[in-house]
Specification:
- This protein has about 60 residues and is mostly helical.
- The chain has a domain at about 10-50.
- Helix content is about 60%, strand content about 0%.
- The radius of gyration is 17 Å and the shape is elongated.
Length: about 60
Amino acid sequence: MKPEGSPKPADSELAEVIAYHEGDMQAAINTPLGDVRHLRQQLALAEVALSRGMTRGWRPSYDRD
């Protein structure tokens, strides 16, 4: 069962992110994009390092289902 849409961040959460980046919207967007890039690389490394028997055939998905 899929959840109904992705939860939207609260306005206060968005304000905190923008304040952290001192109002620089481009930096506020680039930071999570860099995090996603890093996490995808870590997931690819984990996929190579784990044996299929250890994960019982499970394979990671890089995209949301």
